[in-house]
Protein: Elongation factor P
Amino acid sequence: MADISDIRKGLTIEYEGGIYTILDFQHVKQAMTHGFMWVKMKNLETGAVLERNFKPGAKIDIVKVDEKPGQFLYHDGDSYTFMELDNYEQITLPEKKIEEEIRFLKEGMEVSILFAEEKIIGIKLPNFVVLEVKNTDPGIRGDTAQGGTKPAELETGTVIQVPLFVQIGDKVRVDTRTGEYIERVKEK
Structure:
């Protein structure tokens, strides 16, 4: 058992019989009271997102999460198939279980497969991925890195904001944790 003050983003806990990952939290102070901890968490079985308030000193059960190396193989309908790299076993996960991660997922990508209490609870992407820009407005002569941004659709279908100089066909490095553009990658 841990105290609610030990909570942080990405922590996996057991709550009311389900396994949840913490998406966001905030300590809320109120006049004349001790305040409370507001927590937004996602059920890793159903994909449901809950918001709960916890009193100071509340106890939580932290779940130990194990990671195994894996590789994304293919997408079929609303399911995604991965392979464990140590034993070549294939694992299929429903889209709702990994809906945030699929924004940056492409075939052949190496990921970490997450297990809690011998059950598969999801995947973890590398912190940074390189993806190709498939669609964006054309740049105009004089656009510089200090200029503004524009939307760009990546090869996975997700849209992020990129600098004005980025063109269709460019490869960009993206932070998978925040969804932000990091840099344009030069091909060698």
The chain has three domains: 2-62, 66-124, 128-185.
